[in-house]
Amino acid sequence: SVQPQSNGIFPNNRLDNGLEAFDHEREFDTIENLVRNGMNKELRDRLCCRLTFGTAGLRSAMGAGFCYINDLTVIQSTQLRTCILHAYHKL
Asked: Could you report how far apart the first and last alpha carbons of the chain are, in Å?
C-alpha cells in the first residue's frame, strides 16, 4: 500500500482511509484504478506532493491528486488563505 506524506487528509497516513476525500466520481475512479492496478509510482506522483502558490497563483493541470487542480485542492488552498488572512488581520 502506498503511504503518502502526512497531510491532514489521510488519517493515520493510510491511502485507503482517504479515498472519500475525492468527491467527484472521475477523480475517485482515477485514484481507485491506480490502487487496483498497483501503480505505486503514479500514486506517489499524484498524492505525495502539493500544489505550490506562486506569483501567478495556483498553476497545474486539472486531475485527481494533491498536485493537480481539483475541487479538493481548491477548497484546501481557500481554507489556508482564509486562515492566514484571519490570523494576519485578526478578523
From this structure: 43
* Residues in a beta bridge with 58: 53
Task: Report the distance separating Cα 38 and Cα 40, nearest Å.
Answer: 6
Which residue in 49, 19, 21 sits closest to 34, CA to CA? 19
What pLDDT does residue 55 have?
Answer: 78
Per-residue model confidence as pLDDT tens digits over 36-82: 999 999 999 998 888 877 777 888 889 999 889 988 888 888 888 88
Q: Where are the alpha helices (DSSP H) in 1-91?
A: 15-18, 25-36, 40-47, 71-89
Nearest CA among 45, 21, 49 for reference residue 34: 45
Which whole-number Å values give the CA distances from 89 to 4, 64, 68, 75, 85, in the listed order?
Answer: 34, 34, 30, 21, 6
* Dist CA 68 CA 62 (whole Å): 5
Whole-angstrom distance, CA of residue 70 vs CA of residue 58: 11
